[in-house]
Specification:
Layout lengths: L23 E12 L2 H9 L7 H14 L1 H4 L8 E11 L4 E12 L4 H19 L7 E11 L6 E2 L3
Helix pairs in contact: 2-4
Keywords: Lyase, Molybdenum cofactor biosynthesis
Function: Catalyzes the conversion of (8S)-3',8-cyclo-7,8-dihydroguanosine 5'-triphosphate to cyclic pyranopterin monophosphate (cPMP).
Catalytic activity: (8S)-3',8-cyclo-7,8-dihydroguanosine 5'-triphosphate = cyclic pyranopterin phosphate + diphosphate
Length: 159
Amino acid sequence: MSGLTHFDAAGQAHMVDVGAKPATARVARAGGSIRMEAATLERIRDGNAKKGDVLGIARIAAIMAAKRTSDLIPLCHPIPLTHVSCDFDIDEAASAVHCTVQAETVGGTGVEMEALTAVNVALLTIYDMCKAVDRGMVIDNVRLLEKRGGKSGVWLRQE
């Protein structure tokens, strides 16, 4: 067997049993970016997008996505989240919006998938709200930044 845990002894995909794992505080942070035309970034920054508060709506979308991750990702456990935060940084030099999501729980499995899903949905929401004026936007560099808790302890991305 490869060491991947979502396969049973017969090689079939299954949901991992985390029932015996102790509940511990778990935190994951993920990030990503969306690059766009300078005029699009200006509309977002100034709150002049035709569809409204782009970053405010993207923040809500991120939180909603984190809460629904198990409905979107096969074999992902439903997790009772204790906290989700979504922050945006407008980068004028790169003509981009950077998104960082932190997801937290006290449970038997981690929240990496929730944080990663939330970042993707936040960035897709920005794209959706601005695509009428800029179809060339690019979502990239979505990645796990940090993971804390559980048996494996702390993991930090070395960038």
